[in-house]
């Protein structure tokens, strides 16, 4: 009898504890960007950033105060991986995040409440190897390990797309994949240990290709059949609906930064070289590399979805562009009567 | 029976509270999946989960048996002289606080990416608590018990097996428990951090993949399996050993 009573007490206690947790969770759910103190009309926005050459425009925007020009105050958040960024967005701890189109589609498919507010840079992505016996992707053997950032990343999907075109089986090398962050993958490649090939992005891509004998096996643009945004800028539904001024300010600030980078590549290299810990000459060379395009225009937004559905990474395809993009993107692309326009066509893959 | 009933009641209450929390707060499936969808994920992924579990347990068995052997050797060395015991104590003071996962980068440098690195982390995580417990166990054997054994004409291996081992068994069992727990944690953590090499991996790799595919129910399903294995090992294996040994010998008072 006594033990039963003890258990009842325990269950009641547990119940109270969880109810408390639940209530605190409920109250914490409405923690979207706080309005700035009264008397100021400043908007606050929480932005996650990661590392890499593509983040140059964001760094410029921060250093040159492009967002505060429009009355926007940015809270920068740094998170470890794309997975963590997506989780923080789902938990409404972030208003803006940058990620590849495939990881975003995986999130969108699972109900991540965010849409594309801007394309973010077109950048070369390539599969590099140091093994002279590997000329095309058909030459990979079971013992060759291929490093890329994570399953479901843009690199993984590009490889699967190319494999489907070449061999008919998008998952042919899934057992060869090793998930490594870019810097670690780069280190493994340069040491020629464990890893035969690395699907990577600048600056790591240029670093590896500058070594003798390292060559490209697969070019991302070829795998996709055209240009695509390396990242897209996502804004949560919550922020977009509640803070239209903040949203507009963020998009404008981003545009300003892009334009400045395109018109002042030398100054950009000088400004950011200390952050990247490389010489400004080298950084300038990277900024001007073939295929780099600092732009907020949308490229290839719909091209990954069809393939990802077919290969089983997502359960549905966006029916229309407005399912995944906010109105400024839709207006840029437009809708031509009759045959689709050039801008509509570059959203698809070939 | 009654114990079992109260445990089942507790689990039912827990699921009830869980669902209530979801209903009252309207959490999305992304943040807090329902019990039904977790169950569904468990069922649809059952073969993969089974394969990954077998893989995980295989690695643990390899790592833990190696760690126990190393710990036995280490204990033997530190028992065989004052100088050795001091060196071992210093070594333990340095190594024991290091979480296994913290040496993963070094493990990758030495062994490359793959099973060897994970094994190294598991062995490292388990070996120090094992040595600690074994050594304490052997040092705490009452002298009169050893004397009685010697008077009965036991020596060497016989003395070790028939007197020393039973006398220090509570400590050894405690060491095995801690070692198992740390090895299990290390294997899951190592796979979660850097994934598996070449398409094979255990439950940590399963969690990692589910996380990157944003399949929260799958992540929870993996966690449920990890918890269940922990409970099964504790209640079936360790409690069983305890009942048949130290409780029967009355070396510990329950």
Order of helices and strands of chain A: HEHEHEHEEEHEHEHEHEHHHHHHH
DSSP summary, beta strand count of chain A: 10
Q: List the domain count of chain A as a whole number.
A: 2
**Main sheet record of chain B:** none
| Mean pLDDT across residues of chain B | 85
Tally of helical runs of chain B: 11
State the end-to-end CA separation of chain A. Answer: 72 Å
Number of structurally distinct domains of chain B:
1
Total strand count of chain B, please? 0
Shape of chain A: globular
Distance between the termini of chain B: 20 Å
Instruction: Report the CATH architecture of chain B.
Output: Orthogonal Bundle
How much of the polypeptide of chain A forms β-strand, as a percent range?
15-25%
Mean pLDDT of chain A: 87
Described by its quaternary structure, the protein is heterodimer
Signal peptide (chain A): 1-28
Protein name (chain A): ABC transporter substrate-binding protein
Keywords (chain A): Signal
Organism (chain A): Biomaibacter acetigenes
How would you describe the overall organization of this protein?
The complex is a heterodimer of chains A (350) and B (254). With 350 residues, chain A is an alpha/beta fold. Chain A folds into 2 domains: 43-123 and 228-347, Periplasmic binding protein-like II (D-Maltodextrin-Binding Protein, domain 2), CATH 3.40.190.10; 126-224, 3-Layer(aba) Sandwich (D-Maltodextrin-Binding Protein, domain 2), CATH 3.40.190. Chain A has helices spanning 2-29, 56-63, 82-90, 101-109, 154-167, 182-190, 204-209, 220-224, 237-242, 244-263, 265-276, 280-287, 303-310, 327-333, 342-345, and strands spanning 43-49, 72-78, 96-99, 114-120, 126-129, 145-148, 177-179, 195-200, 215-219, 231-236. In chain A, the strands form 3 sheets. Chain A has a 5-stranded mixed beta sheet with strand order 7-6-8-5-9, with helices on both faces. Chain A has a 3-stranded antiparallel beta sheet with strand order 3-10-4. A two-stranded parallel ribbon of chain A has the order 1-2. In chain A, strand 1, helix 2 (56-63) and strand 2 form a beta-alpha-beta unit. The longest helix of chain A has 28 residues, at 2-29. Chain B is mainly alpha-helical. Chain B has a single domain (45-253), classed as MetI-like (MetI-like fold, Orthogonal Bundle). Chain B has 11 helices and no strands. Chain B has helices at residues 2-25, 35-44, 46-79, 82-95, 104-111, 115-139, 143-151, 156-194, 203-212, 216-244, 246-249. In chain B, helix 3 (46-79) crosses helix 6, helix 3 packs across helix 8 (156-194) and helix 6 runs antiparallel to helix 8 (156-194). Chain B is globular. The model of chain B has no long low-confidence stretch (mean pLDDT 85). The chains are: A alpha/beta (350), B mainly alpha (254). At the A-B interface, helix 1, helix 3, helix 4 and strand 7 of A face helix 1 and helix 9 of B.
């Amino acid at each position: 009898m006594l033990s039963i009573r003890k258990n009842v007490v325990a269950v009641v206690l547990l119940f109270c504890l969880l109810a408390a947790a639940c209530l605190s969770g409920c109250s914490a759910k409405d923690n979207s960007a706080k309005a700035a103190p009264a008397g100021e009309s400043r908007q606050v926005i929480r932005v996650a950033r990661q590392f890499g050459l593509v983040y140059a425009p964001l760094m410029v925007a921060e250093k040159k105060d492009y967002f505060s020009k429009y009355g926007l105050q940015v809270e920068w958040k740094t998170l470890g991986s794309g997975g963590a960024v997506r989780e923080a967005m789902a938990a409404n701890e972030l208003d803006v995040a940058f990620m590849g189109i495939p990881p975003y589609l995986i999130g969108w498919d699972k109900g991540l409440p965010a849409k594309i507010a801007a394309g973010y840079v077109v950048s070369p992505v390539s599969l590099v190897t140091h093994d002279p016996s590997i000329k095309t992707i058909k030459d990979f053997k079971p013992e060759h390990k291929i490093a890329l950032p994570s399953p479901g990343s843009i690199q993984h999907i590009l490889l699967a797309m190319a494999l489907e075109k070449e061999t008919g089986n998008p998952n042919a090398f899934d057992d060869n994949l090793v998930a490594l962050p870019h810097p670690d993958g780069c280190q493994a490649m340069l040491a020629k240990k464990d890893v035969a090939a690395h699907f990577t992005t600048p600056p790591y891509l240029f670093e590896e290709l500058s070594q003798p004998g390292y060559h490209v096996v697969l070019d991302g643009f070829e795998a996709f059949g055209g240009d695509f945004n390396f990242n897209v800028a996502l804004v949560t539904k919550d922020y977009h609906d509640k803070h239209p001024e903040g949203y507009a300010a963020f998009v404008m600030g981003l545009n300003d930064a892009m334009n400045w980078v395109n018109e002042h590549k030398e100054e950009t290299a000088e400004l950011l070289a200390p952050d990247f810990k490389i010489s400004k000459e080298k950084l300038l060379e990277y900024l001007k590399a073939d295929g780099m395009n600092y732009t907020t225009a949308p490229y290839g937004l719909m091209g990954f979805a069809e393939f990802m559905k077919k290969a089983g990474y997502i359960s549905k395809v966006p029916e229309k562009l407005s399912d995944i993009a906010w109105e400024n993107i839709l207006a840029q692309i437009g809708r031509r009567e009759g045959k689709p326009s050039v801008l509509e066509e570059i959203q698809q893959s070939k | 029976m009654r114990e079992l009933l109260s445990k089942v009641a507790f689990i039912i209450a827990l699921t009830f509270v869980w669902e209530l929390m979801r209903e009252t707060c309207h959490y999305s499936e992304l943040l807090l999946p329902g019990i039904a969808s977790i169950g569904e994920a468990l069922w649809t992924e059952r073969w993969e989960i089974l394969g990954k579990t077998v893989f995980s347990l295989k690695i643990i068995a390899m790592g833990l048996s190696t760690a126990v052997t190393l710990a036995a050797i280490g204990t033997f060395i530190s028992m065989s002289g004052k100088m050795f015991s001091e060196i071992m104590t210093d070594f333990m003071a340095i190594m024991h606080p290091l979480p296994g996962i913290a040496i993963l980068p070094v493990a990758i440098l030495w062994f490359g990416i793959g099973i060897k690195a994970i094994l190294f982390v598991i062995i490292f995580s388990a070996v120090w608590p094992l040595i600690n417990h074994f050594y304490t166990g052997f040092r705490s054997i009452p002298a009169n018990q050893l004397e009685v054994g010697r008077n009965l004409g036991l020596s060497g291996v016989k003395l070790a097996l028939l007197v020393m081992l039973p006398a220090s068994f509570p400590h050894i069992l405690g060491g095995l428990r801690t070692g198992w727990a740390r090895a299990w944690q290390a294997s899951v953590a190592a796979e979660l951090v850097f994934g598996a090499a070449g398409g094979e991996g255990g439950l940590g790799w399963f969690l990692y993949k589910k996380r990157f595919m944003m399949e929260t129910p799958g992540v929870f399903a993996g966690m449920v399996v990890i918890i269940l294995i922990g409970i099964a090992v504790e209640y079936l294996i360790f409690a069983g050993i305890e009942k048949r040994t130290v409780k029967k010998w009355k070396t510990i008072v329950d």
